[in-house]
Amino acid sequence: MLSENTIKIVKSTAPVLAERGVEITSYFYKTMFEAHPELLNIFNHANQKQGRQQTALANTVYAAATYIDQLEVLLPAVKQIAHKHRSLNVKKEHYPIVGEFLLKAIKDVLGDAATPEVLQAWGEAYQVIAQVFIDIENEMYEEANTNKWEGFKAFKVMKKVDESSLITSFYLQATDGSDVPAFQPGQYVTVRLTVSGEEYLLNRQYSLSDAPGKNYLRISVKREGAEPSKLGKVSNYLHDHVNEGEEIELTAPAGDFVLDENNNSPLYLISGGVGITPMMSMLKRVADKQTDRAVTFIHAAKNSEVQAFHQEITETINLLPNARKYNVYENPTASDREKKTFDLEGYVDYQKLQEIVTDKEADFYVCGPVPFMRNVIDGLETLGVKAENIHFEFFGPSINLKEYQQA
After folding, report:
1. Angle at 305 between CA 240 and CA 352, to 5 degrees
2. 348 is in an annotated binding site
């Protein structure tokens, strides 16, 4: 338990953390990686370069300072981060390293403002916060171990399928012949690659895009960026160099953006771009286990050339007596207009949601780029959908979507 004085000091640092949080976390990562370059085998380098990891950590540190006396308020966010840590194989022994360099960053960046009392209070607070993460992550590791899956495991690419001009699916089976583990629709795996010319291992997280219960795991990867040296190193490598019969490494499925299979209320699955991947897992699970459930599948894409799973969605929807789908194209091609491959033109915004949504008490799952999610969530809230009925997943480090909107 933290003393009242420690809590008071930590909470008093919240304003400066709000102002200089990213500066502190950027310095933290720089000094930690200089001293422990082996940790670069764990982190997503692209998120580091784009500043997303620094911003996400700054949000977390600020939230910890604000709610240090009510850590239970942070548990949903802690669990979301813990899933990512477990998926990346972050272990108990990493936390003292993080604590050492976080305190160093606070001290060096804030200078005289980081008094001995402030540093001592944050040292005590960090121990408590770290233990919360460690305890939750230990439970997650134990759960993964019940499936006899510890750390990274080799999987062979059994099939590679082009789903669109940008997205390719990889069908994976364990190289050792073991069974595919159970997972929840919406979860993801971490893919680890050894790439020639790269000093460190590369890790990326990809949603599983098919229902549980198959004899394979499927990930569907969007090619990111035109120049692999600048963007999308992993996605480009998977597209161009990982072929059928070759192996990649995965950790056990993780993530808390999952379909509530105990709920039979009407369901809206709303995705933009590659955000369609967890929605495919959810849709196909409903087709397997909840065939009478009312489902509305809404997907936004530029046009049919980049939309993945067009035929698969249609076939799955046709299996469900209470299902409907909407393809919303931003810039349909002449062929799209001729063949009528889309239902609505433009963006998924309040006006379109007003046309489509018939049950505001339904459950809504949203996944896609941040601007897309911002439009959809704002639109749903304007329609009167309760916040607890809106579930969303952001690809990348955890962020506060509302704060991102205002940035």
Report:
1. 130
2. no
